[in-house]
TrEMBL record:
The PPC domain mediates interactions between AHL proteins. The lineage of its organism: Eukaryota, Viridiplantae, Streptophyta, Embryophyta, Tracheophyta. Keywords: DNA-binding, Membrane, Nucleus, Transcription, Transcription regulation, Transmembrane, Transmembrane helix. This is AT-hook motif nuclear-localized protein. InterPro entries: AHL, PPC_dom. Transcription factor that specifically binds AT-rich DNA sequences related to the nuclear matrix attachment regions (MARs). It comes from Aegilops tauschii subsp. strangulata.
Length: 84
C-alpha cells in the first residue's frame, strides 16, 4: 500500500582497513497509512517512493586525535599563551 513518510533517519559507518570494506548501521522509518495510523521500524530492503522525496544528508569526520588550537574559553592561541 501507499504510506506517507513521516520520518526517515539513520546512519552508516564505513570501515576500510585496506583489505576489506564493511558497513555498519541502518535506517529507521515512521510511516502513516491512509487510515492515519502511524507505524515504524527498521528498513530491511528497498524503499520506492511514489512521489517527490526531499533528503538531507550530512557527513562528519571524527577528529578526536587532533589537538584544539583554542585556549581558555575560546581565546585565540596567542592570547592563551600570553596568559600562561
Amino acid at each position: 500500500g501507499r504510506f506517507e513518510i513521516l520520518c526517515l533517519s539513520g546512519s552508516y559507518l564505513v570501515i576500510d582497513d585496506g583489505v576489506t570494506r564493511t558497513r555498519n548501521g541502518g535506517l529507521c522509518i515512521a510511516l502513516c497509512g491512509a487510515d492515519h495510523r502511524v507505524i515504524g521500524g527498521s528498513v530491511g530492503g528497498v524503499l520506492t517512493a511514489a512521489g517527490t522525496v526531499q533528503v538531507i544528508v550530512g557527513s562528519f569526520m571524527y577528529a578526536g586525535s587532533k589537538k584544539s588550537r583554542k585556549g581558555k574559553a575560546g581565546q585565540e592561541p596567542a592570547a592563551a599563551e600570553e596568559e600562561q
